[in-house]
């Protein structure tokens, strides 16, 4: 919508404005600087002589200048100062189940591996009286609030198999028609 409005103002009386611009007298160009005229005078013999003449005063000053260049000494890196010291993380061995080949061997304290997470969720689901949040926190070196959040928000999948007669009943059921 805004493009239409701006186009109307832009195209308003465009022909008259163009004719007015064309009919104006052309402005006179600005005068050239005198250095531009030196290029044409560069062919003159006086200027060539001035350029090729040696000035003794400048030559003596140039002879007094002495530049000495040396490369800085090469520093050998021994690799000792490259790494900053960092906090040592306490590691614990994982509780390996039947998926031992898929799991990592060591995990930082306060963290669990994927196989451990699935195992503890399944244990809690099957036996919630034995595998309480406190026992899981102690067993896997976790904080209690993290374990409570894990048990509350993550639920392992359940595989349910329906008997054949239930399947027939479900498929034969006619959906209600909406009127």
From TrEMBL:
- Superkingdom of origin: Eukaryota
Name by which UniProt lists this protein = NADH dehydrogenase [ubiquinone] 1 alpha subcomplex assembly factor 4
**Record region (Disordered):** 20-42
**Which InterPro entries does the entry mention?**
NDUFAF4
Any stretches that span the bilayer, and where are they? none
The Swiss-Prot or TrEMBL record describes its family as follows: Belongs to the NDUFAF4 family.
One of the GO biological process terms: mitochondrial respiratory chain complex I assembly
Quote the subunit structure annotation.
Binds calmodulin. Interacts with NDUFAF3.
Alphabetical GO CC annotations of the entry are:
mitochondrion
